[in-house]
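Form 7-S
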Amino acid sequence: MHAPVIGAGEDGEVNARDRDGEGRARNARPRDGLGRPLPYGAEGVERQPEGVVRSPGETVAEAQRLLDAGMPFHAHEVFEDAWKSGPGEAAPLWRALAQLAVGLTHCARGNAVGGARLLRRGAAALAGLDQPHDAAAPAADTESGPESGPESGSDAGHETGPGAGSPAGPGVPYGMDLGGIVRWARELAGRVEGGAVVDAAAEAPMLAGGSVRA
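Output:
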């Protein structure tokens, strides 16, 4: 199961002439910071590159940067890259986070019903992952478990910053507080359902803390 794709189908079929640098079909219409299509020739926000392989820490940092900038649409593409390029065991985590970013995008676009639904769905998926890890597994073992993948190897132990290394314990994979993120999503969904107008940057969650910035 994949997170909903924003943009596909909402502005018609992809132009047969629109291809990316590798020949894949990709609508070339410019988009704004929330991924909404703009007329051809308009000045839009640079599209997020697809298929980028990042370490978990790099994924968290790049997604946080985009969320803070009020661009959850772009952040969801970063999470999507992580679940498609990383180990299968970690895919549910990145997929749920992508779903939350999609939900925030829809909320900021004014789609309260769809946005709140996606926030609750993503929160439920994350809540299911917020379970204690196997106590027998070394907490800092970067060579085994869900965190192993493209980033593992001779340089895996040198990663620093948010999410460096492997999950540190229950609810904090790669430095993220899943319980806090779940609470953020459910609280925002409730306010959106009550008619709140959402500013994507102001409502951006802190992935390392699971709450909105002051």
